[in-house]
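Entry 14. Structure prediction run on the chain below.
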Amino acid sequence: MPYLHLQTVKGLLSPEQKRTLMDKFSAVLIEVEGGNNPDFRKNSWIRIEEEQPQHWQLGELRPTTQFIERMVQMRDEHCHPK
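Output returned:
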């Protein structure tokens, strides 16, 4: 029984993005470990854990909630222009 644990910064992923990730991760687990047997999905655990931005650091970058909100806005504008 696989258990996949994804950690991310709170606010980066929308509910739809989390659902898509779970579906795609499930598909990979079914293919790789489950031998393409769709019943294997019943045994695959996937957890997305979100931590506050203040709990993360990348180099000297210590993100804030406002920084994450701006990042998401810029990503969405770039990926989904109006």
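The chain has one domain: 3-79.
Filed with the rest of this week's runs.
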